[in-house]
Design brief:
By secondary structure, the protein is mainly alpha-helical. It has helices at about 5-25, 25-35, 40-60, 65-85, 90, 95-115, 125-145, 150-160, 165-185, 195-215, 220-244. It has one domain.
Length: about 240
Amino acid sequence: MVDVSLPLFFLIFVLAGMVKGVTGMGLPTVAMGLLATVAAPHEAVSLMLLPSLATNIWQFATGSARAETVRRFWPMMTMVAVGAVTTAGVLTGPSAHLAVLGLGGVLVAYALFGLAGRKLPSPAGREAWISPPVGLVTGAITGATGVAVMPAAPYFQSLDLDKDRMVQALGLSFTVSTLALGVGLALNGALTAPHLGGSLLALVPAAIGMALGQALRDRIDQKTFRTVFFAGMLALGVHLVFGG
């Protein structure tokens, strides 16, 4: 366990779980963004590994198109894994402070994209050769910052997937990203027993938050929630860039 007060630790993961419960994504983004303000980057990402992995496996496994999703996106997922393992050393090396700046930049880009309500142009018949580079960039950003949303999430939106397949594709991408990130951290000697113990403990508040988020999902106006969420991510990203 790292030097983060227990109440703050629980609050961070309850909030991250709530966002995941309401939107189907965002647990690693919120957890990493907040933890990075009080802990070293590799410690923050180690703490969020197990909650992120557990919720993303659940998100992928509960869908009805598991085999179809894997067949369609396995080239992209392969490159996600390659990118994340390759760049995970950034979080553990002498330039780890750059990971904080990188994370801030990713959060700012993610927030601005979400607030703009924009979509990337559809790849149409070019998906087969566009998906692997998108996967490699997503993996590289994941390994260097611990956040797996960019550019995978906007790319999946551009494919005009229906709601269920969109959620399932994100679940698969986040699962592969998290597993590869864990492998990368382990190869760099940054995945220790105390970190894994803290990550195991984080499953509890994350599960509580996710249950609360699911209960609130039908009671909160989605447009309002998304606006507040992305505005918060923007503020946090700016703080990490200029204060991290």
